[in-house]
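G., the chain you wanted modeled:
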Amino acid sequence: MKGTVVHHEHRIGFLVIRDDKGEFAIAELLGKYDVEMGDIVSGNLHTNGNETLLNQTQNEAMEVCVKGYGLSEHDAISMLLRTH
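Predicted structure as tokens:
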């Protein structure tokens, strides 16, 4: 599944990704990666836990921990705010 990075919370290393169905996923980066808003990523965005996503824009594999998926934009923002 493909998605677009719509937010990168640099302080805590979290991404918000909008998938091609218009739903949102929250993922924690498990390393230092060059991720920017608008980057296209692919991989399993519809599962919780550790996954390897491909940042197609940067041509880089990223280890992440998906914390939530199938979220509305409001739910994704609320979840991100609770991680601080």
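The radius of gyration is 11 Å.

Shout if anything looks off.
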